[in-house]
């Protein structure tokens, strides 16, 4: 972890304490509420109940990267239905808004960053280029590619996706020079997809809000007459993942094909067929 001046502020004792005092306790707290049939609560409320408060920059970037790194925005009305969808279907959709996860790939003539797969940037501005990933490490890409991946999410991701490549490259280089010095080389190429600007995707993947239940996932994937719904957002087990889109699409395609061919629809659930992956 490095601060805005490039100083290494990694403190493994703080990382260990965060794992034990925050993440593990949140997991246990969530499980206890589920076992007692209590509704889920935001992680922020859980942190307050546990008495945790981040004070140092390293604590703040850990908290952001582990708990707040991805958050979504409500869907817009680009797609409309006539007649309107029933209220239970609309509620399920609104509970699964699209989040933004922007991956910015930069190619450099040589590697100059830390020799770690993940490098956290503890900026004073929340969510400002917080996570760097070294794709030059063994097992990632062929060695010597000089590719650095920088990920931004949420509001910062939406802001970055409104910019031109040149604007984003200049902003990143200002940050990297503060960390690694003025002598670092400029990138020869930059690429990132603007998922929030994609009129069909409107984001990277769905992220259910606090309080979403199993019934909401069932309602989201429930058909309306001859209109079927599929996609990762309809999968309670695999939402946010490619396999959720694949498996739910296959399941609905089998049902539709069965109806077209006048044979009983297959009843394989996602749980039954996820072993294929």
Automatic annotation (TrEMBL):
Pfam families: Amino_oxidase. One of its GO terms (molecular function) is oxidoreductase activity. GO terms for biological process: polyamine catabolic process. Residues 70-256 form the Amine oxidase domain. InterPro entries: Amino_oxidase (IPR002937), FAD/NAD-bd_sf (IPR036188), Flavin_monoamine_oxidase (IPR050281). PANTHER family: AMINE OXIDASE, FLAVIN MONOAMINE OXIDASE. This is Amine oxidase domain-containing protein. The lineage of its organism: Eukaryota, Metazoa, Cnidaria, Anthozoa, Hexacorallia.
